Amino acid sequence: MKLDGIASFVAVAEAGSISEAARSLRLSKSVVSERLGELERSVGARLLHRTTRRLSVTEDGAAFLDRARRILREVEEASADLSERRGTLAGPMRIAAPITFGHMHLGPALYPFLAAHPQIELTLDLDDRRVDIASGAYDGVIRHGVIDDSRLMVWRLAPSRRLLVASDDYLARHGMPHSIAELDDHRGIFYTNRGVADWRFLGPEGVEIVRAKVALRVNNGAMILDAALAGLGIALLPTFIAGPLIRTGGLRVVDVGIRPEGEAIFLAHPEGRRPSAKLRALADHLRRAFGDPPYWEEGVSIHAPA
Known about the structure:
Distance between the termini: 66 Å
Order of helices and strands: HHHEEHEHEEEEHHEEEEHEHEEEH
CATH architecture of the largest domain: 3-Layer(aba) Sandwich
Strand order of the largest sheet: 4-3-5-15-6
Number of domains: 3
Helix content: 40-55%
CATH topology of the largest domain: D-Maltodextrin-Binding Protein, domain 2
Strand content: 15-25%
CATH superfamily of the largest domain: Periplasmic binding protein-like II
Radius of gyration: 23 Å
Oligomer: single chain
Structural class: alpha/beta
Low-confidence stretches: none
Largest sheet: 5 strands, mixed
Mean pLDDT: 87
């Protein structure tokens, strides 16, 4: 059983096609097919169903897939450990992160880190959908939100503050709300990946939930910003997204006398796995790059002028 065959099988199973797997492995389709055939002969079982229209994992393939992933991970970690013993951060590392935060802040923070450690082979997946951290597909997952799952191994990278914002045009047409009760009569722009279309605030009695009229539900922070700027409604946005427009007056802060539930930018990694030195180094670098308070808070006040 050869490692390149195992790597090809895992790539095909995850991509769902030989063509996509070949592109990710930078190999020809014929080479990937040959390696898959050799692997199936060595294990004495068919691992994949192949038809002209689709490819799927067989029952034996599904049973083998988790072990195959572990084998590859162990080899990668062993290689990385040897590099780290020599004082070098090297080898593959796969990270998932949200799209808008990744583009606006993570990328600029990552580039100098990668330049300083050229032997790290980073794969960055930007996706706003929730990722199963326990699956082991990623070394780490960067997320923005409330850290409320005690099963996760989490490193806090930076605090995150959210503010209600709206355009002057919207407020001229609908008025400025001054309490959470008044929000009920307003139109809201909501982030769908959080589930229910509501806003959560911390009041004297605990969490208070507001459900404004839905103007738009969307699964991307940048589009929520654009919709608020277009005057569609009020949005609850983190300052790392809305900060620049608050500072320039493109959006106004809506102060209802109560603050939204606190959140954080965090890096989670699979429980039970020792995080690599390069993942720890990345977390330390990102903490320094973002700062505490983070740099995107500069000049952003709840009383920011229009």
